[in-house]
Amino acid sequence: MLSPTDLILVCLIPSPRDMEIARLLGWYRIPLRTAPKVLSVDYLAFYQPSAFGERGSQIEFIVPVHGHELASRAELLRDEADHPRAHEEYYKIQLGALEKLANPIMAKKWKRLTFLYTTGEYLLQAKTLNDLVVKNDERKLLWKSLRERATNSALYKADLPDVEIDPALLVALLGIKELETHYDGKDK
Q: 4: buried, middle or exposed (CB in 10 Å: 19+, 13-18, 0-12)?
């Protein structure tokens, strides 16, 4: 459940098809070349443009973020293998279940939006997109939190390859004289 201290990335969800992918498959894509600096947030808030018809120009859903990885567009959208950007890299954001807001957040004056950082407190009180903009001293605190998240996510990379290491190589690298005392000899 959304808390006031959660970090939120408001982002454009271009089409109802993309919303269905998020809802059914549990992921959202962001092109690497246009991605925001920090993706280690607690929630995404989806801004729905005019492609959503009567449900456009608003934020109707938020979704918890579970992680992210890089993938090509062709890997993500296999039915679009001939797309001009099929081989470009995208962040695949792993998502939880979509949560419908009690009251949608309306665009009012804003008609274009790609990314905007905010907090749970602002989102819980917002009636319009303009209400999501963090200002003054709170803005400094938001950026400090985002920098900390970026630093921590860089320290704990989860997408490293799973490689088996030859025990003899480990012995040589660590300078261990007796293999038996440090390795149980069982093959994995």
A: exposed
Alpha-carbon Rg for the chain, nearest whole angstrom, is 21
Cβ-based neighbour number of residue 177 at 10 Å: 8
Q: Does the global pTM surpass 0.90? A: no
CB atoms within 10 A of CB 17: 11
Average pLDDT estimate for 115-143? 90
Tokens 């950082």 identify what position?
A: 117
Whole-angstrom Cα distance, residue 88 to residue 49?
A: 24
For residue 66, what are the contacts with CB-CB under 8 A and spacing of at least 6? 94, 95, 96
Question: Count of residues for the chain?
Answer: 188
User: Which candidate, 41, 55, 75, places its Cα nearest to that of 147?
Assistant: 41
Q: Which residue has the tokens 């005019």?
A: 50
Handedness of CA 123, 126, 127, 133 (dihedral sign): negative
Q: In degrees to the nearest 10, what's the CA dihedral of 64, 76, 71, 75?
A: 160
Q: Where are the alpha helices (DSSP H) in the chain?
A: 16-20, 73-76, 120-125, 136-155, 167-174
Residue range 40-85, pLDDT digits in tens: 999 999 999 999 999 999 999 999 999 999 988 888 888 878 888 8
Going from the N-terminus, what domains does the chain have, and what CATH number goes with each? 7-155 (2.30.130.30)
